[in-house]
Amino acid sequence: MEPLNLAVIVKLEPDFSEGNVSYKPDGTLNRNETKSTLGPHSGIAAKAAFYAKVRYGAKISVCSMGPPWADIALQQAQQTCDADVLHLYSDRIFAGADTLATAETLKTGIEKMQGKMDIVFSGHRASDGETGQTGPQTAWKLGFTFIGNVISYDVNLEKRTVVAKCLLTLNGVPNVIEEIEAPLPVFLTIDPSYKSNFTTVSQRIAFEKYQKEAYERARNFKQSLKVFNIDELGVDKTLVGLAGSPTIVYQVERIPKGKATRQAEVFDGSNSEHIRKVVAKMREALSAMVIK
Amino acid sequence: MTEENYRHVYVVIEHIDGKILPVSLEMLGEARRLFDDFNARYSSNEKIVAVILGNNIKDFSKELIEYGADAVVCADHPELKDLRNTIHTKVISQIALDKEIASRIEPDYAKEFKKPRYIFFAADSIGRHLSSTVLVELESGLASDINKLVIHDMTVTHQIKTEGKPTLFKKTLEMYRPDFSGFLWTTILCLNNTTPSIKREYYPQGCSIIPGVFEPIKPDPKRSGEIIFYEPKIEENDLKVKVLSHKIVKSEVDFEIRKAVVSFGRGIKDAPDENIKLVVELAKQLDAEIGISLPISKKLLPASQAISSTYMIPARVIGTSGSKISPMLYVAIGISGAMQHIAGMQDSEFVVAINPDENSPIKNECDIFINGRMEDVIPLLVEELKKQQQVVQAG
Fold first, then answer.
1. Which of B16, B185, B212 sits opposite A253 (nearest CB)?
2. Residue B220 sits in which domain range?
3. At A129, is the pLDDT very low, low, confident or very high (cuts 50, 70, 90)?
4. Chain B partners within 8 Å of A17 (Cβ)
5. Do both B281 and B205 map to the same domain?
6. CATH architecture of A4-239
7. Which helix (H) or strand (E) holds A42?
8. What is the pLDDT of residues A208-221, one digit of tens each?
C-alpha cells in the first residue's frame, strides 16, 4: 500500500491572543502593533494532518502564500505535524489577492508538489479575513472532492477512501452531524472542534516519536523550506494577485453607532443601596407576566 | 459584452429535514426590496430567481413565491437528496448558465443572457462552501458574511482593474461586511477588469448573507410566479461520494428554555478562570443560561481546559454569528456592545449591563447600567440575590 501524500495549507495571521494583540482606542485592530503567528485554524489543520501521519504513515508538505516572514507560520506548522516539506509562495504580485486569486496560487503550488496528493487540509477560516472561502475554492480548482466542517476522519488505505464526520451549524434548526465517504483525493477543511483520537499504545508511541522528530525539524526548519516567487511557481500572472481578483475592498468605515434603543439608568456598582435596587428590578423583570 | 448579458438575482435556497431555513426567506425578502427599487430606477424587469435542489421538494416552490420569488428553479432528483458539494456545485452552475431557463424567467432578456447578474447564498455551514465552489465554477467574485446591500452606478478608479482611469460600473452591488471586531464595515465590490491586458467580466457578483440580518417579507398567497423544473445532469463519477449518515444533534446549550441569559465578553480578561466562575455563580442564582460574545469563542484568552471547553464555545455566542435570543432578563458582563452582539440580544425584555466604561456602546442598549468591574459587582449581586430570595422564602 502506498503511504499517504498529504498537504496542509496554512496562513500567517495577526496574533489575537491577549498581550500580543493591540487595539486602537476606537476598538479596531492596530495591525502595526500586533504580532503575527500561525493562524489558530491553520494549527488545527496541521494537527489533523498529523493524525494521518501517526495512524497511517504519511508524507506531509505544508504550504503558505504570504510575505517572506510568513516562514514562521510554516515553522510552527512543522512543529505541529512533523512536515517533511515546507513551501512558501512569496511575491509582491500575489499581494492584495482575493480568495479566488489566492486559490489559484495555492492550487498551482500544490500541483507542483512531489507526487499526487491524497488529502489536502486547510483551516475552517482565517481569524483576520474570516471568509472561509479559500479552502473550498482551492479544492474546486484542484478538482478534489471538497468536504467541509470536518470534526474527525479516518482513511481506508486499501479502498483509498476517506470517511469524515462533519458538523453543520445552521440558524433556526438544530445542528447536524453527517458522515461522508469519498474516494481519494479529497480536500478537507477542519472544524475548530476537531479532535484526533489516538486509541492504541502503538499510536501513542508513534505520536511521541514523530513529535520529537517534529521538534528537531522545526528547529532547523530552513532545511525543509523552499520559497517560490511567481516565476519559480510558474503561475499565470493574470490569474493571481490584484489582476486575478474579481473583488476589491472599496472602502472601510466605522459602523455607525446605532441610535440608543434604551435609556439606561446608571447605578454605582460599589454602592450597596444601588445593588439592592438593581436586584429588585432584575427579580421584577423575571417575575413579570409576559403576554405575547 | 455588455452588462445586458447579465440579468436577475439568483438566490440559492437551503432546506433541511423538510424545512426551508429562515435565512433563505430572509434573502428573498432583501432581494425583493432591492429589486423593486432596481426595476423602478432602471425601468427594467429583472427577476428574483429562487434556486432549490433536493428530492421531493416540489411543494416548496409555492412557499418561495409567496415570500417574494418571481421564479423558482427546482431541481428535484433522488440523487440530490443529500448535499454533496461536487454535485450541488455543478447543478447550481448548470442552472445559472442555462439559456432555456433564462428564457422562461424573462423572454425579453433571453437572447443575450449569459449569466446571472447577482447570486446570493447563506453564510452558514452549507452556503459558505457552496458559494465558494460555485463562484469558482462561474469564474467570478464572492464576498462573505454580508449584512447590508446597496445597488447603484459607481465610478471607480483602480490601479490594476481600470489602469488608474475613472471608470463607470453600472448597477454595482455594494456588499458590506462587518469585520471580526464588529466595529468596522468593509465594502466589497465585484468589478470587471477593464484594463486591456487583463480584460475580464466578472458576473455574477456573489455574496453570502449572514442569517438573521434581513427580514423576510410578509408571505402573500396571491403572489404568482413561474415554476421551472430542471432535470439535472449528474456525472456517474460524482456519485462515488456518499452521505453515510445524517444525525440531528442536540446542543448542550439551550437559550429557549430559560427566562434569563447571563453573557460575558472580553472584560473577563484580567483573570478569565476566576471571572467566569463568578459569572457562573450569578447565572446559577438567576437560573440563567450562559452566553458569550464572539471574541470569547476564539479561545484567545488563557483559561483552564475545563472552563474553556464548557463556556468559551461557539454554541454560546450571542449575535449575528451565533444565537438571536429574547429572554425576559439579559445580563451583559464585560461586553462592550459591538453591533454584531447587539443584533443577537436587542429583543430581550430587560437588559442589565455591568461595565467599568460608561462610554461603551452597550450603555445605549440596556435598561440598567452598573458602573463597575465585574470582580467587584458580581459578588455583591450574588449576595443580594440570595438575601432577597431568603426574604421571599421566609415570607
1. B185
2. 3-240
3. low
4. 300-302
5. no
6. 3-Layer(aba) Sandwich (3.40)
7. helix A40-56
8. 999 999 999 999 99
User: What 3-state class would DSSP assign to B249?
Assistant: strand
Contact assessment for residue B194 and residue A243, using Cβ atoms and an 8 Å cutoff: no
A257 has pLDDT over 80: no
CB contact under 8 A, A251 and B187: yes
Identity of the residue numbered B238: D
- Which of A185, A196, A200, A207 has its CA nearest to residue A82? A207
Say if the Cβ atoms of B384 and A145 lie within 8 Å: no
Q: Is residue B18 part of a domain?
A: yes
Residues B229 and B267 in one domain: no
Report yes or no for ipTM above 0.85: yes
Picking from B259, B289, B285, the residue whose alpha carbon sits closest to that of residue B388 is B285
Q: In a 3-state reduction of DSSP, which class is residue A77?
A: helix
Q: Which residue has the cell 439608568?
A: A265
- Cβ–Cβ below 8 Å for A140 and B133: yes
Three-class HEC string of A106-162: HHHHHHHCCCCCCEEEEECCCCCCCCCCHHHHHHHHHCCEEEEEEEEEEEECCCCEE
Those residues of chain B that have pLDDT short of 50 are none
Q: Give the predicted TM-score (pTM) of the model.
A: 0.87
Q: What percent of chain A has pLDDT over 90?
A: 72
pLDDT of residue B299: 67
Residue in chain B nearest A266 by alpha carbon: B369
pLDDT single digits (tens) A186-237: 999 999 889 888 889 999 999 999 999 999 999 999 999 999 999 999 999 9
> Which A residues in the span 58-117 are in contact with B, Cβ-Cβ below 8 Å?
98-100, 103
Same domain for B18 and B128, yes or no, is yes
CA–CA dist B26, B19 (Å, integer): 14
